[in-house]
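User: quick one
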Amino acid sequence: DGGITQSPKYLFRKEGQNVTLSCEQNLNHDAMYWYRQDPGQGLRLIYYSQIVNDFQKGDIAEGYSVSREKKESFPLTVTSAQKNPTAFYLCASSPLAGVRRDEQFFGPGTRLTVL
Amino acid sequence: RKEVEQDPGPFNVPEGATVAFNCTYSNSASQSFFWYRQDCRKEPKLLMSVYSSGNEDGRFTAQLNRASQYISLLIRDSKLSDSATYLCVFSGSGNTGKLIFGQGTTLQVKP
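Assistant: Done. Structure below.
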């Protein structure tokens, strides 16, 4: 079955540590996205990538980093510079072509808690 | 004006009721419009795209009004399983694939 996977589902981090969240898709989508969702709020875009080896900052990129070495993979690193990293992190992908070019499909998310 | 405005609710309705949500957007260049559904502590899932001519999928009807810059979602014959948060979503400017998400409207269907 095609889809998007994220791991881990839950992650606990001590202050000052960097952590990396995994996102993999086998939908053959060109674009991938990382969002952050805080309780009672909408999704905010952290980073996105339209093509391998290229990515752009979203609205709240500070304290985060990404890479896109393979089409299928778009890992997100939450660095110690991120002041308030506790949140629900969602990865998504979209085809960027065809009539459904802008439809984004989401992975199940990772809940990060900083202790 | 905010990029997107949605009434957060909650909307509490009895089973079988008809309920409607509206959402306004500020970017007149947006080309794609969607409603997503998000269950508690889960990822958003695409409910339906919204087309200029309006579209229907079973009990759900979506409409777009470009002149007034809003989209709407109508749910008929509400089921308990419709209880969720409904996100209004539209595309940003250019060909980036970026989407703008509303904060969502919470629907609670009661027996």
